[in-house]
């Protein structure tokens, strides 16, 4: 069965996950993280894609991005991925693939999930028990969104900018979002939507996306329609 095209609406943020092949490491030194982020910045600028949040884990990456052209994010990820594989293979005298197939992606319901997704991404090292607070992990956008650094790669989303009238107010309000952890249900909802390439959002937003794109934006109900005559007929055999 042919794969459905990726869901895309201009200006709608997307959550991206790319994993190392067989969940193996894709970063081996501090220089590797720096090279990846530099190339991400250049590729995003070239293809008019905004990066709102990121975390680079040992064997995978999370990115929160907004594109204005249908192939913007794909172009960024393809250019970045190919360059980084060549860099790793040359640096460590290795051959073969580095990434696990296509990157995962989901459209994000801005009003209900965007800031939650900021937190989900930047709390990854905490959930992995690598650090106790996101600010203690080096390779994360938390240092720009809630810390004392300004990372040029980051373009604040309008919803982030609405957290305060000044940079100091916004960063303080953002820090306060991290006083509690995300629920297990929220974490699983984000994972399911991203890994299965559906929409992360409330029912009305999912329906809006489906109507706009004239295609499904969520999985079909498993087991068939139990009220249909066809289902009843098959069940009775």
Automatic annotation (TrEMBL):
SMART domains: Y1_Tnp. GO terms for biological process: DNA transposition. Coiled coil: none annotated. SUPFAM superfamilies: Transposase IS200-like (SSF143422). Pfam families: Y1_Tnp. Residues 9-124 form the Transposase IS200-like domain. One of its GO terms (molecular function) is DNA binding. This is Transposase. It comes from Cognaticolwellia beringensis.
């Amino acid at each position: 069965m042919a794969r459905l095209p990726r869901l895309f609406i201009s200006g709608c943020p997307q959550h991206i996950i790319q994993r190392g092949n067989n969940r193996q490491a894709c970063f081996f030194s501090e220089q590797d993280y720096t090279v990846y982020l530099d190339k991400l910045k250049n590729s995003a600028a070239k293809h008019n894609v905004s990066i709102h949040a990121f975390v680079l884990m040992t064997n995978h990456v999370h990115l929160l991005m907004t594109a204005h052209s249908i192939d913007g994010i794909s172009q960024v990820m393809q250019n970045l991925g190919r360059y980084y594989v060549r860099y790793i293979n040359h640096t460590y005298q290795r051959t073969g693939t580095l990434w696990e197939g296509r990157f995962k992606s989901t459209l994000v319901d801005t009003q209900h999930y965007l800031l939650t997704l900021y937190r989900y991404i930047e709390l990854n090292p905490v959930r992995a028990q690598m650090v106790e607070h996101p600010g203690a992990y080096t390779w994360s956008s938390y240092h720009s969104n809630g810390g004392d650094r300004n990372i040029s790669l980051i373009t604040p989303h309008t919803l982030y900018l609405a957290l305060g009238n000044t940079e100091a107010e916004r960063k303080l309000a953002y820090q306060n979002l991290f006083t509690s952890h995300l629920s297990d249900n929220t974490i699983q909802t984000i994972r399911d939507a991203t890994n299965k390439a559906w929409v992360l959002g409330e029912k009305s937003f999912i329906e809006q996306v489906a109507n706009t794109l004239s295609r499904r934006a969520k999985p079909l109900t498993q087991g068939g329609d139990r009220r249909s005559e066809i289902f009843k007929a098959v069940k009775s055999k």
